[in-house]
Each structure stands twice: as structure tokens, then as C-alpha cells.
Amino acid sequence: MNKTNGYHQKAIMTENGKHIGWVDLKNIDKLNKHAELGIAIGDKAFWGKGYGLAAMREMLGWGFCQLDLNKIWLRVEIDNLKAIKSYKCIGYIEEGILRQDRLRNGEYVERLRMSMLRSEFLYK
């Protein structure tokens, strides 16, 4: 499924056709050839089963090959260790800490910015 509101969004489906989440590219900067990746799997029963990694690989391939991006980046809350581990597993590199970047439960939390370059994805 493609949205037409300025970003590319795809449904994450199980082998049986159950819709379990979304992966998207947003904040697309055509001049500098980069975009932000977002991913969400709503049903925790499907966490840790490879669906997120598979969806990210597909979206990275789409972004680098179809949209001709050079860099795809993301932001993740610094205490989301499972997500950070999966992003590193797929090849994302830490760029830095975004201080007090998100308001969560009335308090600001830091987020980690991570990215992958086209050359890092295509030549793994």
C-alpha cells in the first residue's frame, strides 16, 4: 500500500496475510537524497520473529534502488535496547544523541539517531 501524502508506506504482513504493522519512508529530502525510516509492529506476539528486519530490508532496498536515496536514517528512544540491537543487526550506524528529543509521560527523553548509507546496504 502506498500513501500519497508525501511518504511511502507499506503494510507488514505475515505469511498468512495478517496485517501486523507498517514500515515507511518519510521526511524525504530529494535534494540531499535522504529520508527517515519508521516502523511499527503493533501486536507484541509478532515481536522478535524477524518480521521487522524483513520489512526494514525491503524498505531499505526500495529507498536505495527505487527512490535513489543515499542515506536512510531513523530515531529511536535511547532506552529501547531491543530496537537498537535490531537496527545494528541490519547495519545501521549510530550518528549521535538527540537531547530531550521526545516528550514521554511528561518528561523529555533522548533519542539515538542512526543511519545507513546506500553503499553500506548494497555491498554487504
Automatic annotation (TrEMBL):
UniProt domain N-acetyltransferase: residue ranges: 1-115
Family matches, as InterPro entries: Acyl_CoA_acyltransferase (IPR016181), GNAT_dom (IPR000182)
Signal peptide stretch: none
GO molecular function, one term: acyltransferase activity, transferring groups other than amino-acyl groups
Keyword annotations: Transferase
Protein name (record): Acetyltransferase (GNAT) domain-containing protein
